[in-house]
Amino acid sequence: MSRLEIRDLNHAYVSDKPILKNINIDINEAGVIAIIGPSGTGKSTLLRCINRLIQPTNGSIIFKNNDVANVKGKPLRELRRQIGMVFQEYNLVERLSVLENVLTGRLGYMSAWSAWRRNFTDKDIKRAFELLDFVGLSDFATQRADSLSGGQRQRVGIARALMQEPAILLADEPTSSLDPKTSVEIMELLTQLANDKGIPTLVNIHDVNLAKRYAQRMIGMSGGKVVYDGPPDGIKDEHLKTIYGGESWLQ
Amino acid sequence: MATVVDRKHPFKTSLSSKFLWLGLFAYLAYAFSTLDIGWNRFVLGLDQGARLVDRLFPPNFARWELLLSDLIESLQIAIIASVLGIVISLFVGLMAARNLMPNAISIPVRVFIALCRTFHPVIIAILFVKAVGFGAMAGILTLTVASIGFVAKLFAEAIEEISFKQVEAIRATGAGFISTIVFAVIPQVFSRFIGFSIYQLDSNLRNSTMIGIVGAGGLGGTLFSAFQRFDYDFVTAILMAIIALILVGEALSNLVRRIFQ
């Protein structure tokens, strides 16, 4: 039994125009699993189906003995809180403080009444500070999230996802809005987490070289299908040609 | 080699806008000609105005006890109606936001808000005076309805303009609907909501001095009867009291603004 089993997953935003076609993926190992592929091929859609920000058209996503694709309401939220997500544009609540943003990772474990009163447990608050320390932002705890730089915001995003104590982490283009140096730092952080804490981490990424450098497994997608699934050094130029099309860009 | 392209002049005024202006001026000329609003009429009126001003001064504060109790009543009507209206608007506005609610909820709520906005407070006040009788009760209900019409509409619009990415991120943590509202929606609209609320309090203070004219409590009633009895010196006293009330309101809104920013 794998930690995450995606079976025959299909999704179409507009009927007759499928984005995902019969996706089958098994995730069992900790560490970074990079998903590469051209824009518009359904990488984001795939990740968003896993935590059900999108309802897939059909297929199943088995996680913790539940089919994420077919639950609703409270059971869905209880699965979601075990799936951390990091976004391309960080998606922090800009007017809240950095600490509050990290603590929102606990909302799935609290009642609405506690959330309204900001009634976080001492344990949660202590953990939030530890995570901020871990991502190197403890001095920024009381600052508003919109005062941070891109790289700092993404670190807060990662801390928020970790606050959920996730069994699996999804990162949707976590480095695409960042400069090359910061991108590498964020990838290092994600890799460290994935390996040290043993969290399987699915990362959508444009940069093939960055992916090869950090991933222990790569999934290549093209036209809504998985066309490669294996170790990073197994990816050859002909694979990249199938994934992205053309070859002039490889020179 | 540049080829000469025959483009239309980009800033040419369209024929239809010329006709629109022409139509507007023609209508103004017609409207002037039908109403009795010439210069002679104005001079005739000035004469009457001079007599009024003469009788307005000095202000007469002999009935200051009545004045003070009316003033306090107006202030109470305005504050109670503002608080009630704003609290109700919070929920109504949320339910009217089309990006958070299904059409089955947002459309009826929007119709309700539109109804609250349709009538001028004086008309609503007449209805409530007939429904619940003379006095402050009718005034509070009137201004509550007026507040909902304004604040709920603007609040719904503010919610519709929020960044949905932040909402999505909070939803992805497994947060429920209300927690998502509390942590992803309210922070984005809170400062604007305070702004609308202060504006509404200001507006309610002004209106609370007027609805009394139709019997819904506050200073207006006393003002109206003073006019009718030609007690113009008392009218001045009441007008000065209203100015004082508005100044108090101004100070109050500044205080609220300072606390929340």
3D architecture notes:
Chain B: It holds the Pfam family BPD_transp_1. The complex is a heterodimer of chains A (251) and B (261). Chain A is α/β, with parallel strands linked by helices and 251 residues long. Chain A folds into 2 domains: 29-42 and 66-82 and 168-251, Rossmann fold (3-Layer(aba) Sandwich); 92-165, no CATH class. Chain A is built from 9 helices and 10 strands. Chain A has helices at residues 43-50, 73-80, 98-103, 112-116, 122-134, 150-163, 180-196, 208-214, 237-244, and strands at 4-14, 17-27, 31-36, 58-63, 66-67, 83-86, 168-172, 200-204, 217-222, 225-230. In chain A, the strands form 2 sheets. In chain A, strands 6-7-8-3-9-10 form a 6-stranded mixed sheet, with helices on both faces. A 4-stranded antiparallel sheet of chain A has the order 2-1-4-5, covered by helices on one side. In chain A, strand 7, helix 7 and strand 8 (200-204) form a beta-alpha-beta unit. Chain B has a single domain, classed as MetI-like fold (Orthogonal Bundle). Chain B has helices at 15-34, 39-56, 64-96, 103-118, 121-132, 136-160, 164-172, 177-208, 219-228, 232-260. The termini of chain B are far apart. The A-B interface holds A 51, 53, 74, 77-83, 85, 87, 89, 91-96, 100, 104-110, 112, 115-116, 157, 160, 164 and B 163, 165-166, 168-180, 182-184, 187-188, 190-191.
